[in-house]
Specification:
It is built from 22 helices and 19 strands. The N and C termini lie far apart (about 60 Å). By secondary structure, the chain is α/β, with parallel strands linked by helices. A six-stranded mixed beta sheet has the order 2-1-3-4-5-6, covered by helices on one side. Strands 15-16-17-18 form a four-stranded parallel beta sheet. It has a three-stranded parallel beta sheet with strand order 10-13-14, with helices on one face. The relative contact order is 0.10. Helix 5 crosses helix 17 and helix 13 packs parallel to helix 14. Helix 10 links the parallel strand 13 and strand 14.
Amino acid sequence: MKAEKVLTPQMIQTRLLSILPTVQKPARYSGGELNQIVKDWQSTLLHICLVFPDIYDIGMSNLGLAILYDLINQRADALAERAFAPWVDMETKLRAYQLPLYSLETKHPLSEFDIIGFSLPYESLYTNVLNILDLANLEIWSEKRDEQHPLIIAGGHATYNPEPMAAFIDAFVIGEGEEVIQEIIDVFQDWRKSGASRASLLSRLARIDGIYVPSFYKAHYYLDGTFSHLEKTEESAPSTISKRIVAHLPPAPYRFIVPYIETVHERIPIEIMRGCTRGCRFCHAGMVTRPIRERPVSEIIETIQKAVQATGYNEVGLLSLSSSDYTHIADLVKEIQAHFSSSHLSISLPSLRIETFSVELMQALGTTRRGGFTLAPEAATERMRNIINKPISTQDLLQTTQAIFENGWSTIKLYFMIGHPLETLADVQAIVDLSREVLSMGRKIVGHRVQIHVSVSTFIPKPHTPFQWVACDSTENIETKLHLLQHNLRGKNLKLTWNPSEATFLEAWLSRGDRRLAQVIYLAWKHGAKFDAWNDQRKMDAWYQAFAESGLQPEFYTHRLRPLTEAFPWDHIDIGVRKKYLLQDYQRSLQEQTRPDCRQGCYACGILPKYNSLRREKGLTWKCPPLKIHSTA
């Protein structure tokens, strides 16, 4: 779609009056919600559009987007507005009416913004990014954009391996964005005053810690197709890009935008802790978000009070990767009881460890939602849980489930993964046996009301984790394992859900991909791929056709065991955790050896020396113990 001219906000608004009555959920595209911020466009120097490349219903629950929206709009010299991927019916209308994608707040076309910032928490959003650029009438390839185009930046967990999207994004933000977004704005303002070239802007951005400008590097490969190294083509660009972290968590946002329509989460999200020390070997977030930083209890309570007043929500989510690991969790629960016991406020702790203490916490919060309690053992045998470093005994798991039923819950959701390294069919059969044992226990305690929901996903080896060297399980094995579960996990009070294996492989290609995948992503999009995270929209034929036309083999990225000496396309991204540490932990997994919570003793992952100056400068006590080198034998 190429509009003949840039439409004004008034022209877009007029055309929307004809379009919105004809599409599903028009409130996705109207803006005007409670707490949205509309600044004067003309008097504000810098215009940023924050884009979540999936539909509004999902993107509005993204906490990172809410944080940046709040921070940018606190500046007098900048404004932040929002845009999301239009659903297929709305896209059809936009193209038919030659209407460019626009921001919700002021209806300005995306092409009129100075900076467009994409949030990329997962890889299956990549084709949506291309589609959004196209809907905005912007050049898709970074090298074709000039001073007349917005700066396209991206951040989020998927960008810890930015290479597959390197050809489309001008600059990546690696790590936490609260501070670096301010530096980007300052650099952009100074650059614009200077009247210098776009190349100059990129050069200045590359000198900010945590910013990766991919056009300043060239990738090299060996004859066998494996990655060799990145060559700097700009002398001033850093050889490695260290992730940005904030020394302590800044004040949490509380004036959340309240949608007119139902979204994924309708609650106040409060991040109580960032980082995790459990060391689950499959967990990308657990590795890249170190170190642990906690928010004070008093600040959490104050934020909840202000957020309830600002939004009217009656549910609060206390978010972290492992909420029961929050040091002051018992005190926090007591404070919540003291402040909100009479206000009918529902509190959710979405991520809890498998232990009876977690049940006590939920009981203490007095939640009235007895419908479901979620546990994530990830694997059903102790051998498998040792391999993935989630060392929970089956006895402890059963004791916890017993406590759950005895405390009034009738439904337990069990999350498992299949396709773990070294997994056998016996490990998969154990999922059946354990689920049925929990069901039997529930029947004895709560009777016919018991419901066991087993959710199964497929393991994907992620960059920057101890399993970054392993191969994905084969398609045949995955199908066999799924068939075993589908055949045996059915019946009254038992429900099984699973992810299609094709979704797994798509994410696996992209998460450990290199720059050559840009052509695959582009061709897949040209052949119709978008909304790849949606089972009913995913077009695998488009992806296979794209691989074939690019001369690449998808199996190269999924089913190949990486040699321990192999250079990775993401090695120039420094998450603070050393590659040597990840390798040691991978080798321990092969011996079925676990590492306890590193708060019990430091294993020298690399975080402390990497950020030692920041820690010393701020006088902080991150939840890391004193440094002590442990034997890896």
